[in-house]
Amino acid sequence: MTEQPQPFRDPRLPFAERVDDLLGRLTPDERVAMLHQFAPAVDRLGLAAFRTGQEALHGVAWMGEATVFPQAVGLGATWNDDLVRRIGEAVGDEVRTKRAHDDRVGLNVWAPTVNLLRHPLWGRGEEGYSEDAGLTSALAVAYTRGLRGDHPHYWRTAPVLKHWLAHNNETDRDTSSSSVRPRVLHEYDLRAFRDAVRSGAVAGVMPAYNLVNGRPNHVSPLLSRHLRGWTEQPLAVCSDAGAPTNLVDSEHYFDTHEEATAAALRAGVDSFTDHGQDSSVMTGRIQGALKRGLIDEHDIDTAVRRLLHMRFALGEFDPGLDPYADTDALDTEAHRALALEAAEQAVVLLENDGLLPLDPDTGRTVAVVGLLADACKLDWYSGTLIHRSTPLDGLRARFGADHVIYAEGADLVHLKCADGWLHIPEADPAGDAARGAEGALDPALLAGRTDLPPLTCADTPSELALVDWGGGVITLREPEGRYLSVAEDGCVRASADEPGGWIVQETFRWEAVEGHAGGHRLLHIGTGGYVSVAADGVKVAAPDEENSATPGTVFEIEVTERGEDAVARAAAAADTVIVVVGNDPHINGRETEDRATLDLPAQQECLWRAAHAANPRTVLAVTSAYPYALADAAATLPALLWTAHGGQAAGTALARVLAGDVSPAGRLPQTWYASDAELPDLLDYDIIGSRQTYLYYKGTPLYPFGHGLTYTDFTYSDLTAVRDGDLLHVSLNVTNTGAVASDEVAQLYVRAVAPSVPRPLRQLAGHRRLHLAPGAAERVAFTVPVEELGHWDVAHGRWTVEPGAYEIQAGASSTDIRCVTVVTVDGEPAGPRPVLARGLEAADYDEQLGTAIVDRAKTDGDAVTATDEANELLYRRCDFGSGTSGVEVLASGEGAVLITVGGATVTVPVPATDGPYDHRTVHAALAASGTGDLRVVLRGTVRLARLDFTGAGA
What we know:
The chain is of the alpha+beta class. The chain has five domains: 27-313, TIM Barrel (Alpha-Beta Barrel); 360-409 and 563-678, Glycoside hydrolase family 3 C-terminal domain (Rossmann fold, 3-Layer(aba) Sandwich), CATH 3.40.50; 419-553, Trefoil (Acidic Fibroblast Growth Factor, subunit A); 712-825, Immunoglobulin-like, CATH 2.60.40; 835-951, Jelly Rolls (Sandwich). Helices cover 21% and strands 28% of the residues. It has 20 helices and 47 strands. Strands 1-2-3-4-6-9 form a six-stranded mixed sheet. A six-stranded mixed sheet has the order 10-27-26-25-11-12, with helices on both faces. The chain is globular and about 95 Å long. It starts with 14 loop residues before the first helix and ends with a strand. Residues 833-951 form the Cellulose binding type IV domain. It comes from Streptomyces drozdowiczii. Keywords: Hydrolase, Signal. Belongs to the glycosyl hydrolase 3 family.
């Protein structure tokens, strides 16, 4: 008789039944162990170890060689859902392939990042797709569908979206709170996650480090109220690294780790990423919470059930049926072609007076100059390059090496110390260990080595290339291409191929020495120590808290050649100049560090100006993870392009666009502002009140959302919109009227003509990237749910579509609208606020000044507190009916609430309560009738939760 398999091994049963069977076989301790990122094997049941978390933002990261696609913001610039889906498929296949050879590779991938690019100074802007929730959501759906695969039961990989919720700053990221009013929450931040989850291709989310409305994301009630309400599929919530500990140590939100862990588990966190591979700390906290009665077995089982469902979906228990089990697709020809296609589609032509494209067949000389001209930069979430293409590589290959002149533009310097010059001893390669195939020293093999001799002070100076990346941050590089770096022993060596690492060891800062003309100390940013010359070599002296004297050697800088002079010579000798500027993603704005300004670093500003002064046929090619304020360059230069760091094919793609092999058709996924003065505060998340993003910004941007030029012309015509029940069917003609085949991105926007509340100036409702030959036309169709015309009605606590006229706009950018038609939507007007029946939640204001939303209780609810003495909350069109006799104020803290209605002000004293969560009800007389605006001013430490009103007859 054939032995029947254990039910959890039986593929004929639904996953839910199999999960329940397996859960019942696990001991309590085994279940607890599964809640850590590194879940151990259960040998007695034949269960392998399982790890949540594999970075795969734009390729397989941190696990060695892989195909490297453009950064996420570059994928956002393609505006191409189909392309992004195919990239997701390729990345998923490479994850599977690497997993087959390395069990450290996980199939639960933490990607994509769908945080909105609200503020262009955010250090992690390179990780997001767009400032628009609709575009971000569409690309997230595409990428996750590719990562997930199309099998009805088994998943190629299990994508987890990052980072829930309202996360757009690195400054104080684990202690800052994003004040998010209900309209912004429902209309903006939640939407970026919603559609991807509803598509069925998402396995879970990762909460962000920050707090929202005073409450850490890792204990947010929104996880259950919204996230898990969007789908019936089990979703696994994986904590961000170290965030469970932050709940106590940095945020001080809970007194003990047992309380914090229990609260996170009850809120919906299933997998705890904390203390690296040491699971004992977190499992100990969970066990402690169990003993204290803060959680029960049901809480643990609920989380384990979700994690097991993901493992079943990944085919772990059905290897013979898993369609992705035998995937073998790493660095294939198709993946290389896809990387090039993506890099080409990501290029955005910002300006062009006809200089571009350049004809390679004319035999004219091109100078490629700038600090990124021969660079192929990676970021923190990149894999290791198998192939590498810089702008210099690409231009030499396309235009011919004899027709390309190169100058980097770094300043070449000697550093003088008291007894001589900073000198780099010849490296001892230790046999062939540090030599490549040609016998030359291989910088990649030298990186991080401590057996290399440290720098010395000698009679012979070593020439160094000095690059100022802005904000006083510099790198120094020797002629062989190796960066000065500081190893664990504190010695300074020329040993790094590129700046990188979680703590970058290759960046320094000059500090002028008072009383020493031309003298500078060199601060090593990674350690906070100063560079000192000692008898046994150059070292970094660790900061000494007990010794107030500043350590470190005083250096004088001798410039042997200014970078701008080299650039000017190259520019003068060429027919056309390509100046490549931008950022290094490991230096200028990155995870843990926001940018300070939109300005291009001064050294790079000098380079394009020097090139243009020598040759007016100068093109600025910006290769960066972020927007820059380039008003002068835009007004001066004949052509500007932008591309995010484009991965392994970046240089080839740029050269093909410059040569006209490809007509550029990328579009900006976020607004480019003209100056820092146009930006709101980094921590101001109220895009409505502070008029942020293209949705509400009323100024004139340098380049608008959706902007991008091509080498041809397109016309838009015959826009029609027909309502069919809950859908609008919109279509228009797009015609290529020029002489060049090209992609075009048709963009569809909607605008409420006469809204009763502030609404977006226009909002993206659809987009389509299409390719048209010269003279060709295509009818482009969109389907827009009528629901998308709506907004969150704070007066009634619901989503509503106001009746009235709505413009349907089509064009080539958010400000280049070519066609407009109007549709009329019927319905019942929302009406005034029914305050007698519903009261007023304090956070449901229409406008505010000088306040922030905070947590009413640690588990749920919002309140509002003053952040400035000059503060006000405005609630419009409050219906008091035939009259009120009183008001009930629910508040905590101490101070007063000033309520103004109908020109009369009532001051309601709030006696001191026992802490911020001890809300008390205070009664006061208030006479109001009819419909009018209500204003509230807060005094003292009051945290106002809500107002309720008593009818005059009560």
